[in-house]
Amino acid sequence: MRNPLSKNVVNIQPSGIRKFFDIVTEMKDAISLGVGEPDFDTPWHIREEGIYSLEKGRTFYTSNSGLKELRIEICNYLHRRFDLQYDYEHETLVTVGGSEAIDLALRAMVNPGDEVLIPQPCYVSYHPCAILAGANPVVIELKGENDFKLTRSELISAITDKTKILVLAFPNNPTGAIMDYDDLKDIVDVIIEKDLYVISDEIYSELSYKEKHVSIATFPGMRERTIVINGFSKSYAMTGWRLGYATGPANIIEQMTKIHQFAIMCAPTTSQYAAIEALKNGDSDVEMMKDAYDKRRRFLVHAFNNMGLTCFEPFGAFYVFPCIKSMNMSSDEFATKLLMEEKVAVVPGTAFGACGEGYLRISYAYSIDNLKIAMERIEKFVKRNQG
Amino acid sequence: MREEILSAIDKNSKLSAADLAIMLGSKEEEVRTTIKELEDEHIICGYPTLINWDKVKRERVTALIEVKVTPQRGLGFDKIAERIYQFDEVQSVYLMSGGFDLTVIIEGKTMREVANFVAAKLAPMDAIQSTATHFVLKKYKEHGLPLVQIKQDERMLISP
Question: Strand order in B61-69's β-sheet?
Fold first, then answer.
């Protein structure tokens, strides 16, 4: 029998998170700080709208690009919150989570051999999706001393004449880093001069604690070369609804819609109705959750710095990324040992790229009471294992 | 600062001044002083515990009583409300708009005790025209917190 598998797929490494997941699942009564999704339930008025749409029998396909009303609300929202202007008809596509939009954008834009720049540590899907799309992913290793922002010189030295796309994901999972107006301004002219396109994954845009999130697409000359990806999972605590969207130049969105049409058909109808309610009446929920995250964020940064694990102040998402280099252990060893000895699960930084070595991703999508217990245990662990 | 502290402890009064200071990005001493001020000004009026008594053996009966009163000249409803809320059995008193004037929430050990209180203490007061007593059968949510279900964290333990 012939080998049924695609070499391209087989060669892709499984997510580093997977291995750790299996160990944690075996462990009874472990406290986990390893989750990449909100602890809040979807606000009731949003869930209720989903239920209502089911009661009304709205169980059919929607148009490929999503309900018109939803796309209009998305465009209103992006304009209201981030000063982005898109046309709902030709420049907006509703997808199955931000993840699908990442995949679509890469597939719609790259040709074999094109290089896609991926600053790491980052979310686990850009690299494999780039390979699946036929591109060559090129990793840029971001540095702790730059608070894990992408610097101008790092960008310049990674660009070759094959580079086509830069994936930008700020506020960042796993580091919690943000890139503010000045940080972005610093790289925008390089992007334009080198004629790159940007896939800007702004799924954590609402969770920016220092100042309002700035989208790179708002810079002059950037709108026509940027696909902005966002969604409902993080800001409205709607991970399980699987709903995201992409906005960008019509010619790119058109091709993305084509793939989406053949591969997916349309995003879940119930979720789309619920999402309309989220955008219309959900601003205060976002504010409430952000406020709760912010308190926990300060609590964790303080706790880590206090126990001697230096932790730069992350101003975005819901992760802190403390440095454990002083412990003379690899991230993997630290995380495994911590789980075995203190029953606290965290994710080793290396799950998000090799340059995550020496760091841990700690999620604060947990109640303060939970975080307190976890921090006490980690502190005990650190004291016991420090030289 | 004041409002930030209040909204932080609104649902969790167990947070210490030290924790609050970290969470709000402030100084412990400043938080301590502000809380003291809020207490002195009777903005923070107490730190009760939210208990689901249904889960404990001890019987408790709660009744909501709609009360119609004749307001007194020059004193309005405040005087009569004050007379009512002084009783230990009374948990809450609200002045209402609409079909009746005061909502009085009473807690007692038994239904008979509550009925006695209404008949012997409340209804006979001069200013009170009428009462309508409704007994609470089950409490679902109080102070913004659900009393009935304990929610398990159903998320996967690790996710990207």
Answer: B90-95, B102-108, B61-69, B128-135
Rounded CA separation A91/B77 (Å):
61
Sheet holding A226-231, edge to edge: A92-95, A244-247, A226-231, A197-201, A163-168, A115-120, A136-141
DSSP string, A51-84: HHHHHTT--S---TT--HHHHHHHHHHHHHHH--
B150 interfacial to chain A (CB closer than 8 Å): no
Q: Are strands A197-201 and A163-168 parallel, antiparallel or unpaired?
A: parallel
Burial class for B121, CB neighbours closer than 10 Å (0-12, 13-18, 19+) = middle
Q: Could you tell me if A43 lies within 8 Å of chain B, comparing CB atoms? A: no
Coil, helix or strand at residue A282: coil
Which domains occur in chain A, in start order? 7-42+284-382 (3.90.1150.10), 59-281 (3.40.640.10)
Residue bearing tokens 């989208």: A215
Structure-token pair, residue B91 = 């948990």
Between CA A192 and CA A367 the distance in angstroms is: 43
Low-confidence ranges of chain B (pLDDT < 70): none
Give B138-143's long-range contacts (Cβ < 8 A, gap of 24+).
B138/B54, B139/B52, B139/B54, B139/B62, B142/B50, B143/B11, B143/B50
Q: What is the CA radius of gyration of chain A?
A: 21
Q: What is the tens place of the pLDDT at every residue in B106-151?
A: 999 999 999 999 999 999 998 999 999 999 998 899 888 888 777 7
Helix (H) or strand (E) holding B146: strand B145-146
Q: pTM higher than 0.80, yes or no?
A: yes
Q: Per-residue pLDDT averaged across A324-335, rounded?
A: 95
- Confidence class of residue A387 from pLDDT cuts 50, 70 and 90? low
Tokens encoding A19: 């291995």
Nearest residue in B to A302, CA atom: B22
Inter-residue contact A112 to A132 (CB < 8 Å) = no
- The interface predicted TM-score of the complex, written ipTM, equals 0.84
Q: State whether residue A210 sits within 8 Å of chain B by CB.
A: no
Contact A96, A264 (CB under 8 A): yes
Determine the 3-state secondary structure of B119 from DSSP: helix
**Contact yes or no for A322/A334 (Cβ under 8 A):** no
Contact between chains at A299 and B23 (C-beta distance less than 8 A): yes
* Amino acid at the residue A216: I
Residues of chain B with C-beta less than 8 angstroms from the C-beta of A347: 158
- Which pair of structure tokens corresponds to residue B109? 């050990």
**Residues shown for chain B:** 160
Rounded to an integer, what distance in angstroms lies between the CA atom of residue A113 and that of residue A249?
23
Amino acid at residue number A266: C
